[in-house]
Amino acid sequence: MNTKVRVGIIGYGFAAKTFHAPVIASVKGLELAAIVQRSGNSCLNDYPSIKAMKQVDELYRDPDIDLVVITTPSTNHYTFAKDALMAGKHVVVEKPFTTTTEEADELISIAKEKGLVLSVFHNRRWDGDYLTLQEVVRQKLVGPITEAELIWDRYSPLAHPGRWRDAGGEGSGTFYDLGVHLIDQALTLFGLPSSIQADLKVQREEAQAFDYFDVTLHYDSGLSVRLKSTLLSVDPAPRYRLYGKNGSFVKYGEDPQEDALKAGGVPGTPHWGEEPAEKWGTLNTTVDKLQFTGRIKTIPGSYDSYYRNVYEAIAGVSDLAVRAEQARMAIRVIELGMQSHAEQRRIPFTP
């Protein structure tokens, strides 16, 4: 492929600086061409050759921009994505996709009508620990699965109500922010559930949005998948626990790519995404009457694979890995989880 896809980013906060700009710049075929930064021009210090813009309309009008990446707070993803699609641009939206499924459906419809690529940045599908979990499931290493837990605990005891995540507006809170990653991973692994039960809380002083969730996805097969997060965990629980009729898989810790990106690392460099052996997950299982207990080497993570796939989808040589329709279903789970919490009951899943 000789196609060059020129990329413009809306917003230059943590997400753009840490995840999007450096990863985009590392992918052959993508060219980081413009950034809309309304306050300051620090983007030029990091990427001197780009166009620095103050208004999104400049980006929409630029005929050289093929792909618009939206890294603004989730509360206004819909507006930016709609305007970019209407301007004829391919679009990548930071997660969560939108605040409602109605917004998601409208964006999906516009993208289809215009023949444009629309994807959501569910980069956590390319976390090394999740890739490893996916292989354990695919290869049935613990036998028929009865229960799974996907947990994202952190210790951040001080809320910041002036920031969108803690402010209590539509689309704020950890259920939207962290939960949507776990939801996407669960739906990718196990498909759509038959019902949902959710417990949501505000645990920290001054927080105005939910900062705790404990959600269970129930399946007709009897499988239950628990998704949980608290910001008051000094000693985090395992990130993944998978239980089957033949054994279990348990994994602690978080993928190293985020910390590497914060430190200025670049995808594609030697040993990118690799975990040290002491952080590998533990498999305890019986396969063909043989008992095995030991560490399973974590598959290296690869956030650049997400953007490489987006490039190939725009070039027309690969199917899109993270489709907007899938991201829309994650938003539907959030909506039904909110309903379950409000009504204090288990809610049947309806698309």
Low-confidence stretches: none
Tell me the helix content. Answer: 25-40%
Strand proportion, as a percent range, falls in 15-25%
Describe the biggest sheet?
Answer: 9 strands, mixed
Gyration radius from CA atoms, angstroms: 20 Å
Number of strands: 15
Strand order, biggest sheet?
14-13-12-11-7-10-9-8-15
Q: How does the helix and strand content classify structurally?
A: alpha/beta
Q: Which descriptor suits the 3D outline?
A: globular
How much is the average pLDDT? 96
Helix run count? 11
The CA-CA distance between the termini, in Å, is 38 Å
What is the chain-wise order of helices and strands? EHEHEHEHEHEHEHHEEEEEHEEHHE
Overview of this protein structure:
Helices cover about 30% and strands about 25% of the residues. With about 350 residues, the protein is α/β, with parallel strands linked by helices. The chain has a nine-stranded mixed beta sheet. Helix 4 runs parallel beside helix 5 (about 100-115), helix 5 runs antiparallel to helix 11 and helix 8 (about 180-190) packs across helix 11 (about 325-345). The mean pLDDT is about 95.
